[in-house]
């Protein structure tokens, strides 16, 4: 049965003063940029904005899919804005980001699934900054040409989330396919032209079992994923799937230990963990591991 209980103590955060968030908010408004922080109602928004960082969301703020866990709007899409990559790059440079994370809505309506826009955004950031670049992409409907187009722009990390266990896909991600997402990770891991970290992530608290989560870890590791994130699902509105269970910090620690034992080079697991939360630090773990 879904839980209707109030958040447990480990899911409470202090909100920083609004003045500390204003610099990022004003910059995003001036450059007409979207963030997944705002569109997906991320619980870490205030913390990240106060620290002068954000996860940019390109290709608009309206998705062609309707995943039942996600707060991003679904509806009519607009054509990609040609100057958006340069505006993202300007924002990253202005904020002085050392690790830039770029994601997008899913754009099944576009001929190339939005892959060329990702590539141009990576290139635009490279032109003005020496920051590392991480992209969190949709599945591109499994198209190898689209995945390779992004890889050819040489991101440091290519992240694609499986989000949940295969049994729950019809409920949570009815327009996605677990095996297709695993194959996406496999294609990234097999890319031999440059070193790109393959990363993925899952939510917990949607009704999955521990055994199912551990099997998903094994599937991702077998596909070649080097980094993994695990965080608590939080219901963004009454119209979205209810939380089935709040996973305890001790359980998250056990997931982290299990993933590390399977050979993942970097693992982030905790109630507030999200794909882009402290993503630069997670990449740093891989760099340290590769030198040891």
What's a concise summary of this model?
The chain has 292 residues and is of the alpha/beta class. It is built from eleven helices and ten strands.
Strand order of the largest sheet: 1-2-5-6-7-8-9-10
Low-confidence stretches: none
Structural class: alpha/beta
Radius of gyration: 18 Å
In the CATH classification, which architecture applies? Alpha-Beta Barrel
Annotated CATH topology: TIM Barrel
CATH superfamily: Aldolase class I
Overall pLDDT level: 92
Domain unit count? 1
Beta-strand residue percentage: 5-15%
Total helix count? 11
So what's the CATH class? Answer: Alpha Beta
Q: In total, how many beta strands? A: 10
Helix-residue proportion? 25-40%
* SSE order, one letter for each helix or strand: HEHHEEEHEHEHEHHEHEHEH
Largest sheet: 8 strands, mixed
Distance between the termini: 46 Å
**Principal-axes shape call:** globular
Main features:
single chain, 292 residues, alpha/beta, TIM Barrel, 8-stranded mixed sheet, two-stranded parallel ribbon, globular
Can you describe what's shown?
The chain has 292 residues and is of the alpha/beta class. It has one domain (16-291): TIM Barrel (Alpha-Beta Barrel). It is built from eleven helices and ten strands. It has helices spanning 18-30, 36-39, 45-50, 84-95, 115-128, 144-151, 169-172, 178-190, 210-223, 249-261, 279-291; strands spanning 34-35, 56-58, 62-63, 73-74, 99-104, 132-136, 157-159, 197-204, 227-232, 266-270. It is globular and about 45 Å long. The N and C termini lie far apart (46 Å).
